[in-house]
Design a protein that fits this description.
By secondary structure, the chain is mainly α. The chain is built from 18 helices and three strands. The protein has a three-stranded antiparallel β-sheet with strand order 1-2-3. α12 runs antiparallel to α17, α13 packs across α14 and α16 runs parallel beside α18. 44% of the residues are buried.
Length: 469
């Protein structure tokens, strides 16, 4: 139902249109400020919760974050309902609420030592994604909810698997071979989308293998470098990693290829401690980027759109120009949920969802979103630093780099800081493969955190055992 129809229906229900219109405008206007304030408080707690060692204070903050998340979710759903008077909005809200509550309670019930901030951030990002995707297309939102629900339930078992299985570092060759085979599968049964042949479609189901292989890829590199960083091993691992990257380049999935490449460099640098590897890799990557520009026409179009979208606004620059218009129109406080024109931005539900968020919820909200993403990265790095086993330390680091670099590529492409690379904003953008792989990533990090807590508890109990003897 469009806004005119909604207004007419409101008139039939409540009387004079002018009074209803005023009330509706007040609700929409007030809601955006309340949402921004609540999200700013949530974001503030992400960085201040670890000040001090009072566990009761931390629990209070985590519960407050939950209340804020549910509050923002309720307000956004109420505004969307008032905009359309579509009762399916209420039904979807209740379904999303049930999913969020279930995941929050289930993970904390099953895992006593689970990181509540990692869990809160995962649910907050999922919730924002549900709201914005539903604002753009209810069909996309339903599919996103289904994928998120399935993987959140299955993800319950991932921390348990990590905690119980102690031999993940023994399968480096398996991770490498399996990853290469899955990436190469697109050459057999793959389909092309947006200039890249990086999708597998079986019936009505489509997926991006690169989203799942990036986790195996980190496991493979961490497994090899946890044992040795000799020149021989570095060359061997580098060649296998290059095969992964070259397959992605052949698929024209250059965004994923860039994420894989940077992840390899980061793990190599941390594992070896040699800056020479980092500078050599960055030099080789820069040369490869220049080569990609001359080899692929769609890369040339993206670079032209990045340099001057206004000169090609009718063709290559249209998407970037519309994103910049949306961000500029939204200003600091946004136009209000449902008041913008996000559907004018091509693929606003996935690659350019940050522009849609900025238009309707404002720059302040968008900045808080970036800070929450950074908070996740800091948490992942902190967990990596705490791990005692080298394999798990490098795994957490690699997943953290993959996550934050994907965030950088997505937002950087939207705001014209870098050329668009066609990658999604983790947990927020629409995409079954993306949400599945990102929830798996969060669950692996959660499993590593729980494993570290168990190791700390065992160390603390050790002196007591010795005293009894």
């Amino acid at each position: 139902m469009d806004k005119a129809g909604a207004a007419l229906k409101l008139t039939e229900l409540f009387g004079e249109y002018d009074a209803v219109g005023v009330i509706h405008s007040i609700v929409v206007e007030l809601s955006k400020y309340i949402i921004i304030i609540l999200f700013a408080i949530y974001t503030w707690h992400c960085f201040t919760v670890f000040m001090g060692k009072n566990e009761e204070r931390k629990d209070v903050i985590y519960k407050r974050q939950n209340k804020i998340m549910f509050g923002i979710h309720f307000i956004c759903s109420l505004v969307l309902f008032l905009n359309s008077l579509d009762w399916t909005v209420i039904a979807f809200y209740l379904a999303q609420l049930a999913l969020l509550i279930f995941v929050n309670k289930a993970y904390l019930y099953v895992y006593r030592n689970a990181s509540k901030l990692v869990l809160n951030n995962m649910l907050m990002l999922l919730m924002i994604g549900f709201v914005m995707i539903g604002r753009i297309s209810q069909g996309y939102m339903v599919r996103q909810m289904i994928f998120a629900g399935i993987i959140c339930v299955l993800g319950l078992f991932i921390p348990l698997l990590i905690e119980k299985a102690a031999y993940f570092d023994q399968f480096g060759k398996v991770y490498a071979v399996l990853g290469i085979l899955l990436l190469a599968l697109v050459f057999v049964i793959g389909v092309e989308r947006n200039g890249s042949r990086n999708w597998i479609k079986i019936g009505s189901f489509a997926m991006q293998p690169s989203e799942f292989v990036k986790i195996l890829y980190v496991f493979f590199i961490a497994a090899f470098f946890s044992k040795s960083t000799s020149i021989k091993n570095v060359v061997k691992v580098g060649m296998i990693a290059a095969v992964h990257v070259l397959i992605l380049v052949a698929e024209k999935d250059l965004g994923a290829a860039l994420i894989y490449f940077i992840t390899f460099l980061a793990i190599l640098y941390v594992a070896s401690g040699r800056a020479a590897y980092l500078f050599l890799g960055l030099g080789a990557g820069s040369a490869a980027a220049v080569g990609a520009y001359y080899l692929f026409t769609h890369v040339q179009k993206r670079v032209i759109a990045w340099r001057d979208p206004w000169s090609t606004i009718d063709t290559a620059g249209y998407q970037v120009a519309q994103a910049l218009f949306a961000i500029g129109t939204g200003g600091w406080f946004g136009m209000g949920l449902g008041e913008g024109l996000p559907t004018k931005i091509p693929v606003a539900e996935s690659d350019f969802i940050f522009a849609a968020i900025s238009e309707e919820l404002g720059a302040f909200f968008a900045i808080c979103l970036i800070l929450v993403e950074i908070s996740c990265f800091i948490l992942f790095i902190n967990i990596a630093l705490r791990m005692t086993r080298r394999f798990y330390k490098l795994t957490a680091l690699g997943l953290a780099v993959e996550y934050i670099f994907q965030v950088f590529l997505t937002i950087g492409g939207v705001i014209k800081f870098i050329p668009s690379t066609g990658v999604t904003l983790p947990l927020v953008s629409y995409g079954g493969s993306s949400v599945l792989s990102t929830v798996i990533l969060f669950c692996i990090i959660q499993g590593l955190y729980i494993l570290n807590c168990r190791e700390v508890e065992e160390v603390e109990r050790q002196p007591k055992r010795q005293q009894r003897r």
